[in-house]
């Protein structure tokens, strides 16, 4: 993400200025120093690819220091933990998720049951698949279906042609669509 952002925006005349990149240890739980450093640069927007317990620390520090800009947290289901722990901290944070369980969607219910049946006993709990895991699952399922249609695992051209014949509904209940430029499209992202 950082490399793409620099490639896209770090150039003369760009309407966006990247102020800094702050890298953290994923196991770090207190991000108050890093967030204070970031806010000292007076940003309008913070892209915080923050995972785990550090997210609550970062968002709390931002609120305590009066940050009223936008924060983007690519945290998937972890944002729910922030809302439950401190709902006021999550105000102004938006999140991108690839999958939200929907009890009214048969595809979602089926996927959730299969996932929990497969992995729940191993982990000793009922599990909710992560958005990222679901995103990977969707891509893998499309590929495997194209391989089945092509009848080969080695002929790349046949597999590529078979993508156009895949008829499958994702866990979100969305059909897979192949665009003329060979891009496989599913609506797997919610904002």
Question: Can you walk me through this structure?
Answer:
- There is one protein chain.
- The protein is mainly alpha-helical and 191 residues long.
- It contains seven helices and five strands.
- It has a three-stranded parallel beta sheet with strand order 1-2-3, with no helix packed on it. A two-stranded antiparallel ribbon has the order 4-5.
- Strand 2, helix 4 and strand 3 (93-95) form a beta-alpha-beta unit.
- Helix 2 crosses helix 3 and helix 6 crosses helix 7 (156-163).
- The two termini are 18 Å apart.
- 21% of the residues are buried.
- The mean pLDDT is 79.
Keywords:
single chain, 191 residues, mainly alpha, three-stranded parallel β-sheet, two-stranded antiparallel sheet, 7 helices, 5 strands, 42% helix, globular
Shape: globular
Task: Report the average pLDDT across residues.
Answer: 79
Approximate helicity band: 40-55%
Radius of gyration: 20 Å
Order of strands across the biggest sheet? 1-2-3
Extract low-pLDDT stretches: none
């Amino acid at each position: 993400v950082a490399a793409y952002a620099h490639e896209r925006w770090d150039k003369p005349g760009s309407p966006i200025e990247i102020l800094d990149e702050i890298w953290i240890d994923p196991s770090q739980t207190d991000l108050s120093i890093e967030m204070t450093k970031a806010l000292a640069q007076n940003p309008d927007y913070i892209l915080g690819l923050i995972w785990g317990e550090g997210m609550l620390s970062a968002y709390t520090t931002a609120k305590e220091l009066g940050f009223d800009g936008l924060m983007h947290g690519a945290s998937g289901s972890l944002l729910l933990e922030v809302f439950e722990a401190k709902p006021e901290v999550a105000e102004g944070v938006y999140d991108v998720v690839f999958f939200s369980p929907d009890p009214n969607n048969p595809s979602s219910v089926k996927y959730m049951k299969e996932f929990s049946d497969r992995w729940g006993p191993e982990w000793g709990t009922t599990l909710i698949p992560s958005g990222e895991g679901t995103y990977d699952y969707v891509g893998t399922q499309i590929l495997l279906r194209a391989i089945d249609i092509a009848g080969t695992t080695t002929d790349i051209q046949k597999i590529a042609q078979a993508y156009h014949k895949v008829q499958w509904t994702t866990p979100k209940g969305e059909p897979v669509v192949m665009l003329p430029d060979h891009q496989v499209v599913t609506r797997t992202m919610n904002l």
